[in-house]
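Hi L.,

As promised, Transcriptional regulator, AsnC family:
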Amino acid sequence: MLTAIVLIDTEPNKIPEVADQVVNLQGVSEVYSVTGKADLVAMVRVRDHEELADAIADGISKVPGVLRTETLIAFRAYSSVDLDQAFALGLED
């Protein structure tokens, strides 16, 4: 499994529309609106490099409103906590 973190710069008035389209692309597991260098961050998880090219070069980069992308490919995952549990801190059922 390959994991890529894709930083996405968008037209400022199209951030929500771009996020909605990107999250529905094959291989994209989640999209976050963020502060800082990029407007959006997409997590892409695929089986091989060909699927990665499909998801990013043929998918994310072609969404209307996307100006630029920068892709970071993960080598290893380090985690001491379950991410779902970490993001649920303070939320009671």
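The CA atoms of residues 53 and 66 lie 16 Å apart.

Thanks again for sending the construct details.

K.
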